[in-house]
Amino acid sequence: MDRDALDEALNALMFKHKGIYFDANYTSPEVINEIEHMEIKDHDVILVTYPKSGTIWTQQILNLIFNEGHRNGTEHIDTMTRLPWIEYNINNVDLKSHPSPRLFTTHLPYYLMPRDLRFRMAKIIYVGRNPKDVLVSFYHFYKMNPNLKCTINWETFLDLYISGKVLGGSWFDHVRGWNTHKEDFNILFVTFEEMKKDLRSAVLKICKFVDITLDEEAIDTVVERATFKKMKHDPLANYTFLPNDILDRSKGAFLRKGTVGDWKNKMTVAQSEMFDKVYKEKIGDLPIKFLWDLNEEPSP
Ligand code: A3P
Question: What are 41-76's pLDDT values in tens digits?
């Protein structure tokens, strides 16, 4: 496909606003502008991620931690209703009167978050994932998007991702922004890889941060229900509740592989080395480390 046709398809899919690309089908610049004025309450908990970093996984964990009815199966509220999106309120949840403690989800960069957050005790959980696995996951995710009227090949997608011309904007900017402004917020950083390595410890870490004490049995339930295997078949958590005109399930699944290091199956050695160079230039100065493979130690 030629570049003009691709640009046309991308322009129909997303708009750029304040440095970030948003999905034009589910939000607007007006909605994004309003978020700045959103009233925040002290007990709010906001899950923040860059796309494909473990968002629906953590939504499920938080839904299980906060709601006994979700743990014991007596209520049937899907994770998107329980933790509605701030910028993509697809299911029209009344964000203002959402039951307290209000739980929300967003892919927003730090500078587009509600201003009120800086004056409140509200908690932010930021889940990060190594950017090569994010890239591969994102590439497959784009294929499921029925609003994208073209097929993007792998090499082109790699370029778009590195230049930040994808939904959610640049991974590098997102991570840099949240990490360098962490003092402005009440924030806990968690990684996809640590959840993968030791889910129980990650659940306990999140419980501690949100000040919830669960007994052993409840923790066991949270951990069990948040495994890839269980979530894959949990219609309240796996986003199969989204209609096909939002996500074409004949082309893939939200819960695809759920592994660490899948990038090795997709990136060539040259692509990986080029990516390492960009990574070093853009965020090599930050004191953060990612796990690129489950058998290795985390490295910058
Ligand atoms: P893959 O495409 O690599 O499989 P997001 O929710 O931010 O869009 O992230 C989606 C990624 O998280 C997908 O990665 C998906 O498989 C993975 N994921 C979701 N739930 C998971 C779970 N319980 N365990 C491991 N990975 C999970």
Answer: 999 999 999 999 999 999 999 999 999 999 999 999
Give per-residue pLDDT as tens, 187-211. 999 999 999 999 999 999 999 999 9
Q: Is 19 left (phi over 0), alpha (psi -120 to 50) or beta?
A: left
Element (H, E) at 23: strand 20-23
Q: For 3-283, which CATH superfamily applies?
A: P-loop containing nucleotide triphosphate hydrolases (3.40.50.300)
Q: How far apart are alpha carbons 200 and 299 in whole angstroms?
A: 23
Pocket of ligand 1 (CB under 6 A): 49, 51-57, 133, 137, 140, 226-228, 231, 254-258, 262
The first and second tokens of residue 181, run together, are 């402004």
Catalogue the active-site residues.
Answer: 107
**Cα distance between residue 125 and residue 46, in whole Å:** 6
